[in-house]
Design brief:
With 320 residues, the protein is an alpha/beta fold. It has one domain: 3-Layer(aba) Sandwich (UDP-N-acetylmuramoyl-L-alanine:D-glutamate ligase). It is built from 10 helices and 15 strands. The strands form 3 sheets. Strands 1, 4, 5, 6, 9, 10 and 11 form a 7-stranded parallel beta sheet that branches. A 4-stranded mixed beta sheet has the order 3-2-7-8. The chain has a 4-stranded antiparallel beta sheet with strand order 12-13-14-15, with helices on both faces. The longest helix has 16 residues.
Length: 320
């Protein structure tokens, strides 16, 4: 199959350090165990999943210092092409604390290094070389030095060149990108509720918000719901419900990024929206089956595909 390479953009990548302990005791010395240092960031994780599922990808973004070199080394080992811009600062280190006694997880996320105008212009120049018709994934937090509307501006420029943009971000960055009409956005339930400005509980409410976000500009919307699966609205305003099988959950870290990787790969292959939902849900579920921060395995994804249910649902009746 002759496929275009899928680009990913991670503005604020990281090295992720998972630490496990019996109990977290604030103000005291805590002895922890840690076995891995992982590359992190939504776009980078999407690239890693795309590669595992047999797709071609190249990762863009900003890295710096020894932690940046470590991130490059990890991607080289996974045979993932990258075209990062080198910055003066250090790629941030994200710490993830797991308490064995309670199962509670706590994340410590630094702000990240400053990104100046020259680095941003170099990224823009690199993205202008992406072939029309390609798929590009961008997501994650916005580092210091960049405006919260950066995703909106990047998507607008890429749309003008017929590049299909999938965006996975949150808060004001997600709100602002809608007006640029990205091909697809993938918030989770918390992110969707924030942009909607209200608490969401029922499937019908999530579907209604998916339609609202589409009306505000996104061409298609997928809202991931964890163990409950996902809902989506495609570019023809058809609503879809995704149901996933019950599994033993090892860790949900990276599941949303994995779903985005699956969605991107399917759309890059010009699959139908329901087929894209199936692959995305299988990738996200497979990642939840792996321990710590491990991402999905191809064998698990292939086995889960037949267990994912994707069905079109009737339009929601609106009440006066």
């Amino acid at each position: 199959m002759n496929e275009r390479t899928i680009a990913t953009v991670t503005l604020n990548p990281s090295i992720d350090v998972p630490l496990a302990m019996d109990d977290l005791r604030l103000g005291e010395t805590n002895r922890c165990s840690s076995t891995v240092l992982d590359p992190g960031g939504k776009g980078i994780n999407a690239s890693r999943v795309i590669r595992r599922l047999g797709g071609e990808t190249v990762a863009y973004g900003f890295v710096g210092g020894m932690t940046g070199k470590l991130l490059r080394k990890h991607l080289d080992e996974e045979r993932i092409a990258h075209a990062f811009d080198e910055i003066d600062g250090f790629t941030r280190i994200d710490v993830m604390l797991f308490e064995r006694s309670t199962g509670r997880r706590t994340r410590l996320l630094p702000q990240g290094p400053y990104i100046g105008p020259l680095h941003l212009e170099r990224l823009r120049a690199a993205l202008r070389a992406i072939e029309p018709g390609s798929v590009i994934v961008m997501g994650g937090s916005v580092p210091p030095g960049l405006d919260v509307t950066i995703y909106r501006d990047l998507v607008a420029a890429l749309n003008a060149r017929d590049v299909r943009c999938i965006v996975d971000t949150s808060g004001e960055a997600l709100s602002s990108v809608l007006e640029a009409r990205p091909a697809l956005i993938k918030p989770n339930e918390v992110e969707a509720a924030y942009v909607a400005g209200r608490r969401l509980r029922e499937e019908a409410e999530f579907l209604e918000v998916a339609r609202e976000l589409r009306a505000r500009g996104a061409r298609a919307v997928v809202i991931s719901l964890g163990a409950l699966g996902a809902v989506g609205v495609d570019d023809r305003d058809r609503a879809w419900r995704v149901t996933v099988p019950q599994i033993k959950v090892e860790s949900t870290i990276g599941s949303g990024d994995s779903m985005v990787g699956g969605l991107a790969l399917a759309l890059n292959r010009d699959a139908s929206f329901d087929e894209a939902l199936r692959l995305g849900a299988a990738a996200g579920t497979a990642t939840a089956m792996t321990p710590q921060r491990e991402l999905c395995r191809l064998s698990d994804v292939e086995r889960l595909l037949s267990q994912i249910t994707v069905r079109e649902v009737a339009p929601i009746a609106r009440t006066a």
